[in-house]
Amino acid sequence: MAYDEGLAERIRRYLDEDPGVTEQRMFGAITFMYEGNMAVGVTGDDLMVRVGPDAAHAALARPGTRPADMTGRPMRGWILVAGTAVTEDEALGAWIDEGRAFAASLPPK
Questions:
Q1: Is the pTM of this model over 0.90?
Q2: Would you put residue 38 in left (φ > 0), alpha (ψ -120 to 50) or beta?
Q3: What is the pLDDT of residue 73?
Q4: CB 6 within 8 A of CB 47
């Protein structure tokens, strides 16, 4: 499955100054890693955000979200945010910051 290049480019610009961030393509998506841990990604037209298991329930109560289910099984601690819910840079930045904060809480790889 292809991913939304425009959304990926917006994420790149937002994370451009962070030396801990790298990019990796996987499973037809693109992910942005912080210190080797996945933080956010783009799959299809959706933003994938790693919020962690403790924050997933609250994140899923926000508009445009649903569980990340790539293989028929929900991914624990991950959510998908509809591309239409992150058209504004402020909304996208908030989700990116949330994913990066969770990734930063993990030991570097």
A1: yes
A2: beta
A3: 85
A4: no
